[in-house]
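Morning. Coffee machine broken again, so started the prediction first thing and wrote up yesterday's gels while waiting. Chain of 96 residues, entered below exactly as on the submission form.
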Amino acid sequence: MLRHVVFVKFKAGVTAEQVEEVKKALGGLPGKIQEIKGWAFGPDVLRTERSVDFALVADFEDVEALKRYQVHPDHVPVLGLVRSVSELLQVADFYL
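Came back before lunch.
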């Protein structure tokens, strides 16, 4: 199983409504993309100096499944939405 972890730092001025829009868009993906085997996301709750604003953890069978997910027509616009409100996106992928 491949774990895909995404860390997001939002741009200054991103509103709670925009964050909710991101959450809603992300929440719809597991029902549309069969490659997703595990899915969790949400805003940071501790808000320390080392914290990012938001994180996503997704599980895929293997690298090939992750690559199919990345170009899936339901994922691409959601990624665009996330990018539009993000100052920084960082990703780590590793096998469990």
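The chain has a mean pLDDT of 98. Going to sketch it on the whiteboard this afternoon.
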